[in-house]
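Human: I would love a firmer grasp of how sequence relates to backbone shape in proteins. Could you go through the record with me and say what the backbone is doing? Here is the record:
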Amino acid sequence: MRKEYTKIKKIESSIIEIEKVTDIAYNALVSVHAAGMEFVGSVVMVDDDTVTVEVYANTDNFSVEDIVVSFYERPLELPLNETILGRTFNGIGEPIDNGGDIYADETYPVEGLALNPVAREYPRDFIQTGISAIDTLTTLIRGQKLPIFSGSGLPHNEIAAQIIRQAKLKTNEDFAFVFAAMGIKKDEAMFFEDAFSKAGVKDKLVMYQNLADSPIMERLLAPKCALTAAEYLAYKKGYHVLVIITDMTSYCEALREVSSIRGEIPSRKGYPGYLYSNLASLYERAGMIEGVKGSVTLIPILTMPNDDITHPVADLTGYITEGQIVIDRGLSSKGVYPPINVLPSLSRLMKDGIGEGYTRADHEDVMNQLYESYSKVIDVRNIAQIVGEDDLSAVDKKYLEFGDVFESKFLSQAQSENRELEESLDLAWDILKILPRNELHRVSEKNLDKFIGKADE
C-alpha cells in the first residue's frame, strides 16, 4: 500500500518538505515522480503533519507544481541473491553494468537487521594480506573492523586493491568481496575495476559505486547497500566477506552538507552531533555470529584532511573501530610502498589472533621487538639531526642502520608481491640481527637462541 501527496512546501537541494501528511513512519521508502521520471527517497524527519524527505537524485529540475510523492509502508530494501556476485551497482543498489535487474524471492532493508550483541563471536582467525607491515605488526583478524587512515594523493587505493587480490584465511577458504566507493572520480573507478579483473576476483566481488558527479544523497546510501549485501552473503549464504569502503571522509562530508541543509545545529568542524552514532551504525555491522559460518570483515578507508589524525572523521573512527593502519606521507616521499607508519598503527584484536595455534609461536616477540626498535630509530634520528651522525654511539649507529633496512627491506614490497607470513617473520628476524643481542629486550631467551644465535659464553 502507498499514499500519494502533492502538497509540496519546499524543495532545497535534495530535501523536499511535504505538508498535511499523516501516518507516515520515519525511514519509510519514498517514490518521487518529477520531471517525467521516478526517483527514490526516504523519510528523514516527521514534524506533526510535515514530513521531510531526502531524494537520492539531483533535484535542480524539480518544480513544486509538478511533483507527486508516494509513501510506502516499508523502508528501502534491496533484492538480493547470489547473482549479485560479479555485478556493479550505483549507490542506491541499481545495476549499472548492463547485466539486468536482480530478481530475488526476498528483499533486505539497507539499514541492516538487529544483531544481539550477546550472539557475537569473538574474532580470532588471522587473515593474511601478503603485506608484511600488516600481517606482522597490525594483524587483520576475521570479523574485525580495521580502518586505513590516509591522506590525499597517498596510495591507499593501491593498498586496498592489493589486499583484495591477496587476502586469504589460514584454512585457505575463499573470500567474497564487497567494495563500496563514495565520491570517487571515474579514473579511480576504472582503476579498481581493472585491478579486480586482472586479479581474477571479479566473479567473487560486488561493487557499489557513487562517483563524484553522482547525487550527494546517493553517497549516504552506498555503504549501507554494500553492508546489506555483505550481511546477506555472510549470514544467509555462509561466505566469509571482506568489505572495503572508500572514502569515509566523502561520506561524512555529504552527511555534513545534508545536515546543514536541514538546519541542524553543527558540532566539531560543522559536522552533525550524531556523526559518532552514524558511523557506529555502519562499522558495527562487521563481525561474526555464533553458530553462523559466514563473517563480515570491514576495512574502511578515510583520507585525513591536511593529514590530521585528530580530525573528527579519523578521531571518531578510531574510537569505534579496533585499531587503524596509518599511511605516512614521509615514508611515501622516500619511495617506500606500502608507506605504512607502524608506530601509530595498531590492531587491538591481534593479541588474541597471533601466536602458537594461530600464526607462529614467535609472532608476538617479533611484533613487540620491531615496535620497540623502530621507535628507538625515530629517537636516534632526531638526535642525529642535532649533533650529527659522527657523534653518535656505536649502538645508535646500529639503530640507524636497522631503521634504513627495516624501511627498505621489510616495509617496502612490490604491489604484486604477496609475502607469506612465515616469510615476513623470517625477514624480520634477519633485520633484527643488525642490532646487538643485548638490545633485544622484548624477545624471550628461547627465541633469541633460536633466531638470533646463542649468546657468547
Q: What stands out?
A: The longest strand covers residues 37-47. The chain has three domains: 3-71, 77-352, 362-452. The domain at 77-352 is CATH 3.40.50.12240 (Rossmann fold).
